[in-house]
Amino acid sequence: PYYDLDNNYAGYIGAVMDITERKQHEKILLDSEEKFRKIFHHSADSIFVQEVLNNGQNGRIIDVNDMACEVWGYTREELLGKNVMELYIVNEDQELNNLRDTLLEKGHIKFEGVGSTKSGNTLYFVVHANIITLDGKMVVFLIARNMTEHRLAQIQLFESQQRYKALFLNMSSA
User: Where are the alpha helices (DSSP H) in the chain?
Assistant: First the structure.
C-alpha cells in the first residue's frame, strides 16, 4: 500500500510479472512426466532401474514397474533395495561378473536368463540393459521380457518330436 503525507491511503505500488509462459512450460513438463510414468508402469515387460556403485558393482533396485511386481511375485517394497541379480539363477558367479563387465564396457547388453519368482517358479526371460544417467547418477535400466510360455512351448515341441521320432524308428525296425 501507498500512503500520502497525511497518512491516508493513496493507492498501491507493486510490480506485475507475466508468468504465463513459465506456467505453460511447467504444464508441458508435468504432462511429459505423466506420459512417461504411464508408459513405465503399463509396459508389458518388467522394468527395473538399479544403481551402479562407484566401484562398478551392482547396487540396489531403486524403481520397478507394475509388471515386474506381477511377474516376479514381489511387492514394490520387497523389490526395492534388492539387487536384480538376486532374481537371476546363475551357474557360477563368473557368469554374473562377465555380464556386469560387458555392460560397463559397452554401456548396453542383451542376454537370456533364467530366474526364480518369489514363490519359486522358474522364469525364462530376455533382458535388454542400458547404462543411463538419472539425477546425475549412473544407473542400469533393465527391461526383462518374460519368455516362459514360449520357452515351455519349445520344450514341449522338442519332446513331442523326440517321441514321434522314436515311434517312427521303432515302427521301421519292426
Answer: 20-41, 66-72, 76-79, 93-106, 148-173
Those residues whose C-beta lies under 8 Å from the C-beta of residue 61, and which sit 6 or more positions away, are 48, 49, 50, 79, 80, 81, 82, 83, 84
* pLDDT band per the 50, 70, 90 thresholds, residue 172: low
In the structure grid, which three cell numbers stand for residue 71, read together? 511377474
Cβ(100)–Cβ(50) below 8 Å: no
- Dist. CA 157–CA 50, nearest whole Å: 36
- Cα-Cα end-to-end distance for the chain: 111
> What grid cell was written down for 18?
507475466
CA 29 to chain centre: 22
pLDDT at position 39 over 80: yes
Given this model, what pLDDT does residue 174 score? 56
Q: Return the amino acid letter for 144.
A: A
Give me the percent of the chain exceeding a pLDDT of 90.
60
- HEC sequence for 55-80: CCCEEEEEEECHHHHHHHCCCHHHHC
- What 3-state DSSP class applies to 102? helix
CB atoms closer than 10 angstroms to residue 149: 9
